[in-house]
Amino acid sequence: MVVVIILGILAATIVPQFGKATQEAKFNRAKADIAQLETQIEYLFLHMDRYPQTEEGLEILVTPPGEGGDKWRGPYLKEVRPDPWGNPYRYRSPGLHGSKTYDLWSTGADGADGGEDVNTDVKNWSE
């Protein structure tokens, strides 16, 4: 009985740490995904002399645009995957933040802009 109680206490202290490690891993993956998306957007810029428009979004990295597609040298990605929480990455051009000409971000675990802790947005700009 004492062993079961000790195991229960150990499990209660260790299990929450795994949850934190999982959220940290998702946050780091989102940062890496955003860095990769930025690289592919820059390749597209080199070919097309412009960044994707907000309406085109990140899908232009996979599918050529209807207009001006003769300069497109993609696909730049096989597919645009969702963020680690299953939400689409968000893209806006022109950007409203930082020195980039576009904003690229994940809304985090809650799927909404803003938030703290596990709900913190992962973005390509600093505040």
Can you count the beta strands? 3
In spatial order, strands of the major sheet run 1-2-3
N-to-C series of helices and strands: HEEE
Largest sheet: 3 strands, antiparallel
CATH architectural label: 2-Layer Sandwich
Name of the level-1 CATH class: Alpha Beta
Describe the protein's topology.
Layout: H1 2-48, E1 90-92, E2 103-106, E3 122-123
Antiparallel strand pairs: 1-2, 2-3
Structure commentary:
It is a single chain. This protein is mainly alpha-helical and 127 residues long. The protein has a single domain, classed as Glycoprotein, Type 4 Pilin, CATH 3.30.700. Helix content is 37%, strand content 7%. It contains one helix and three strands. The protein has a three-stranded antiparallel β-sheet, covered by helices on one side. The mean pLDDT is 86.
List keywords for this structure.
127 residues, mainly alpha, Glycoprotein, Type 4 Pilin, 3-stranded antiparallel beta sheet, 1 helix
Quick description:
This protein has one domain: Glycoprotein, Type 4 Pilin. Helices cover 37% and strands 7% of the residues.
